[in-house]
Specification:
Structural class: alpha/beta
Number of helices: 16
Largest sheet: 6 strands, mixed
CATH class of the largest domain: Alpha Beta
Radius of gyration: 21 Å
Distance between the termini: 50 Å
Shape: globular
Bound molecules: iron/sulfur cluster
Mean pLDDT: 93
Number of domains: 2
Low-confidence stretches: none
Number of strands: 17
Length: 463
């Protein structure tokens, strides 16, 4: 039996920081998502293994509360989540945890380790960096200090390792294990598009098959989970009394051969209500209909910019025609649509950013997530700044909300980009037509409460 300790440190000022391996960020609203990488780790465990989970951010713990919990822990292996967004604070907590649990192997996880320099730096301070949490041999990793320390699947233990050796871009089939959802049903986790407060996060494919150079997910080669295991997971979630799902894929449905049978079975046997990230390039009307029949009420689409030409320079092939078709179909099906935008991409002028914002205002959508450009580790944005002389540790603490400022680009200062973003948020959400649309689509008092709290927080966070 292995005793596993999953630890997320508190965040400065109780900010809702999400520490995902592809990107960390501060919540733009009231939402706080479940930690999908730590959930995946629980799916790699044997039935007899024990898990203790501490989330200092979700539970808004003070430093003293958090450290007193750490002082009472005992276990065989620690997984510690870290982020680029609050790196300095997380790094300090890592030291506090290490000094208290000095004899236990400690593995870290977080977006900053998409950067090779950051990996090299942290490897001297821990037993490894988890980069693919669906394939861990946890018992062996717990014995790292006796058995020589790796290599282990899904873990960096040496700085020159690469994802999956020479096959980094090929699809991989991963983990048939089922995450222990009961551990993650804390009320502090909130999903912004949910119709029910209690929700569970499910992943069908980890990583992304696309290669947009400004995105951290492009660093994670896609790994697909077996459909049978996902269906078993859904039965487990149902038994926990959960009706709402968040399919946290980067591009749900890219692998149709696996996804279509899953959706058909969901439509036949389950009654979940759910949301997901997908991509308009793969969302045909038939596929959206299948998703809707299986209970999908909200799709999140990455628009990023209104300029197809500019997107191509970042290896993103996205067409507005396909986007508009997907949005029209989703509207016909009475689904909700969230569109994501990035403001301040390299080469964008004020007029380019304003065009993207005007485009967002014209689209018949329900939510818009306006993100300021961030030098996420491992992306072309971060690499370019490093080539100009920055160290990865000069580029920490930025996030897509702009709380700690913004890097700017050659046409716009960071403050100008943040001001454009804040104006876009107010313009989008405070239109009477938009408020009426949202009210019409609200399906219950619980749904109204979730929506109201999100909306108040989104607007409240705009300076
Ligand atoms: S499709 Fe989306 S998630 Fe995938 S690499 Fe591009 S921006 Fe990232």
């Amino acid at each position: 039996m292995t005793r596993v300790l999953l630890i997320i440190p508190p965040s400065p000022d109780n900010r809702h920081i999400a520490r995902f391996s592809f990107q960390s960020y501060e919540s733009k609203g009231n939402y706080h998502l479940q930690p999908k990488e730590l959930m995946a780790i629980t799916g790699c465990l044997a039935e007899k293994d024990e898990v203790t989970f501490i989330d200092g951010t979700c539970d808004k713990q003070s430093e003293a509360e958090f450290l007193s919990k750490i002082d009472r822990l005992d276990g065989d292996i620690v997984f510690f989540s870290m982020s680029n967004t609050v790196w300095k604070s997380d790094y300090r907590y890592l030291h506090e945890v290490k000094s208290r649990l000095a004899d236990i192997p400690i593995y870290v996880q977080g977006d900053i380790f998409l950067d090779k320099d950051a990996r090299e730096f942290i490897l001297s301070e821990c037993d490894g960096v988890v980069f693919y949490p669906y394939m861990l041999e946890v018992a062996e990793m717990a014995g790292a200090r006796q058995n020589g320390g790796g290599p282990y699947p899904g873990v960096y233990t040496a700085s020159d390792q690469t994802f999956f050796g020479h096959h980094s871009n090929r699809l991989h089939h991963i983990s048939s294990g089922i995450p222990r959802h009961d551990i993650f049903l804390k009320s502090g986790y909130r999903f912004p598009f949910a119709k029910h407060k209690k929700f569970a996060t499910v992943v069908t494919t980890y990583g992304c098959p696309f290669v947009c150079s400004y995105c951290g997910s492009a660093n994670l080669p896609p790994g697909i989970r077996p459909t049978g295991s996902i269906l078993e997971e859904l039965r487990h979630i149902e038994a926990l009394g959960v009706k709402e799902l968040w399919f946290y894929d980067s591009t749900f449905g890219f692998y149709k051969k696996e996804t279509v049978p899953l959706l058909e079975e969901m439509a036949r046997r389950h009654n979940f209500s759910w949301s997901t990230f997908t991509n308009h390039q793969i969302c045909t009307p038939d596929f959206l209909k299948l998703m809707n029949d299986a209970g999908c009420h909200t799709v999140i689409l990455g628009v990023d910019s209104a300029s197809e030409k500019n997107l191509k320079t970042f290896r993103r092939n996205s067409t507005l025609t396909k986007l508009e078709l997907a949005i029209a179909t989703a509207n016909d099906l009475k689904m909700n649509i969230c569109a994501d935008f990035i403001l301040g991409l390299e080469n964008e002028t004020r007029s380019d950013v304003e065009k993207t914002i005007s485009y967002a205002l014209k689209l018949p959508i329900d939510y818009a997530s306006f993100n300021v450009i961030v030098p996420t580790p491992g992306t072309s944005v971060s690499e370019k700044l490093k080539q100009q002389g920055a160290s990865i540790f000069d580029l920490v603490n930025f996030d897509s909300l702009g709380k700690a400022g913004n890097i700017g680009n050659k046409h716009l200062s960071g403050d100008e980009i943040i001001a454009l973003r804040n104006r876009a948020v107010k313009k989008f959400y405070l239109r009477p037509r938009h408020l009426a649309r949202r009210l019409m689509k609200t399906t219950s008092f619980e749904h109204f409460q979730i929506q109201f709290e999100e909306m108040a927080a989104i607007v409240g966070k705009v300076r």
